[in-house]
Amino acid sequence: MDRRLAAVASACTLALLLAAASLGLTLRAMGANSGLLAAQASSAAALRLRLDALEAQVASQADWTVIASSARPSVLTITTASGLGSAWVAHSGPAGSDLVTNFHVVADGWKAADVTVQVQQGDRTMNGTITRTDQADDLAVIHVAERLPALTAAFTRPRLGETVMAIGSPLGLGGSVSIGVVSRLGSLDGSDYVQLSAPISPGNSGGPVLDRHGRVVAVTAAKFVGQGVEGLAFAIPVQTVCVSLVACQQA
């Protein structure tokens, strides 16, 4: 009888040991699965962060094709008896539109008391009148009776190294665009200038320089030329225009 009890006790002990071992294996498996799930969740979170960062980077990049297409109707060619240049619509209302250009584009006519110019928008030609000038900053305002789409001016100056687009009429080729960066912010001959690497040519004078949001940051004015000189264009900060010359449209 004692042998039977001993055998039964041994069997029970063995069963308990087997059950404990099985439970241990189960717990270890559950622990391993939990660790795997935690690792997968951490990996998914990291991928989500990377995806969000990439989406933000894409969103911050400019679509220059869209910007050029949107801005071109607001950039015009100015023709005078002594040459041509560019202009952009700074303000528009029921009374017509005010265009900004460089004074040197219209200087000969203004000094001769001839305040009329031809304004061309694609195949459309309009009569324009020089209404205000700022000879010190090389700026002028031309008014047309037509109501044209105005460009938005930026509140702040562009940053060094920022990509920008110049639009104008180099050699009369209206609506031409070029891309460059802001190379320097400073002064030249006592006036504030934005230095650009965007290629410009005669006829670009007076055209707008746009940032990645399509806002005007400067007005193309001049460039240095000479052997070995490349990418040295200068533009007038748009704040100079909007503070003293014309009520610019701003966001």
Notes on the structure:
The chain has 251 residues and is an alpha+beta fold. It is 33% helix and 36% strand. The protein has 4 helices and 14 strands. It has helices at residues 2-60, 64-71, 103-111, 238-244, and strands spanning 75-80, 83-93, 96-101, 116-121, 124-134, 139-144, 152-153, 163-168, 176-188, 191-196, 208-210, 216-223, 233-237, 249-250. The strands form 3 sheets. The protein has a 6-stranded antiparallel barrel with strand order 1-2-3-6-5-4. It has a 6-stranded antiparallel barrel with strand order 8-9-10-13-12-11. A hairpin with a 2-residue loop joins β2 (83-93) and β3. The radius of gyration is 35 Å and the shape is elongated.
List keywords for this structure.
six-stranded antiparallel beta barrel, 251 residues, 4 helices
Please describe the topology of this protein.
Elements: H1 2-60, H2 64-71, E1 75-80, E2 83-93, E3 96-101, H3 103-111, E4 116-121, E5 124-134, E6 139-144, E7 152-153, E8 163-168, E9 176-188, E10 191-196, E11 208-210, E12 216-223, E13 233-237, H4 238-244, E14 249-250
Parallel strand pairs: 7-14
Antiparallel strand pairs: 1-2, 1-4, 2-3, 3-6, 4-5, 5-6, 8-9, 8-11, 9-10, 10-13, 11-12, 12-13
